[in-house]
Design goal:
single chain, alpha+beta, 15-stranded mixed sheet, 10 helices
Length: 301
């Protein structure tokens, strides 16, 4: 078997780049042929993944959740075998799947060769997301934080970006239609999830990436909130991320399904796995068991 290894040299403070020699030696002891490419940008990662899906038996890659998304855009629905070495700031995909967040442990998962067929979200028929499509409060920080800040401060870089840009929560109109019915409200945050971990926290802890279902959480808000309504939104954010909404359920809407039609303002920006996505209305459909990935053998997926 031949494999391609793609990595982003600056992801996660450059920890993977520092161990590239060890990674290469380990891979060459296991695969018949190994090609290694250090990518220069997200677009470069996508381009190499797209080309690699036609040439290699296995594509291995390292980086953060944004890198995972970039690879996903490249391979599309090609059923090439994938392996992942987490090398980013929060690594939510790895947290959801139980993939070790260190090079040696993640390589061990790949070399053992246990794979799973995972669900993938498809948006508006052409874009893909692995674990989240979100809009609203604090979501912009994942793609506006500078790489240099993330390298220096790690996950704190996102907190600094929130303080600098996003403490005033925007209220936007929202209508969601699913198999369970519809929800129409104003909101400050919507999360469409296909994983357990969001921002390093197990917001969706009972979910699976291979059950054919997505989960959605919506924080409701008045169209023109006063002081107490704004403070309530902050309290609901904290409750959602730390306690899955306990004590704030009337301020939250939860949905589950395989397809969501979402209508909102045309300037609302969607965050796809930490990457800037489309704006405005979207349709999210789940493609069941569409992607092959090496995962730990005894972990729930």
């Amino acid at each position: 078997m031949n494999c391609l290894f793609l990595y982003h040299p600056t992801s996660g403070k450059g920890k993977v780049a520092k161990k590239i020699g060890y990674i290469e030696r380990t891979l060459r002891s296991h695969f018949d042929g190994v090609d290694i490419i250090a990518t220069e940008s997200g677009e470069d990662m996508t381009s190499h993944a797209r080309a690699g899906a036609q040439k290699y038996d296995v594509i291995l890659f390292s980086g953060g959740d944004g890198t995972f998304n970039r690879v996903l855009q490249g391979i599309g629905e090609a059923q090439v075998q994938l392996g992942y070495i987490p090398g980013g700031t929060t690594n939510d995909v790895a947290r959801s799947l139980g993939i070790p967040r260190n090079v040696k442990g993640a390589l061990g998962v790949i070399l053992k060769g246990h794979e799973a067929w995972l669900d993938v979200m498809r948006l508006n028929g052409g874009r893909y997301a692995m674990y989240i499509a979100a809009a609203g409060a604090f979501t912009r920080a994942t793609y506006t934080a500078k790489p240099s800040s993330k390298k220096k401060f790690g996950i704190l870089a996102y907190a600094f970006e929130v303080i600098r840009r996003e403490l005033k929560l925007r209220v936007f109109p929202l209508k969601v239609t699913s198999e369970e019915g519809s929800v129409q409200t104003h909101s400050v945050l919507i999360l469409t999830m296909n994983g357990r971990s969001v921002a390093g926290m197990r917001v969706n802890r009972h979910a699976s990436m291979a059950d054919g279902q997505m989960e959605m959480a919506i924080i409701r808000q008045k169209e023109r909130p006063g002081f107490f309504a704004r403070m309530g939104a902050y309290a609901t954010l904290v409750s959602l991320f730390l306690f899955r909404g306990k004590g704030r359920k009337k301020h939250l809407a939860f949905l589950r399904g395989s397809r969501f039609q979402i209508e909102t303002a045309q300037d609302v920006v969607w965050d796809l796995d930490g990457e800037e996505g489309m704006r405005g209305n979207i349709e999210v459909e789940l493609l069941p068991r569409r992607m092959r990935l090496f995962v730990p053998e005894k972990k729930k997926i």
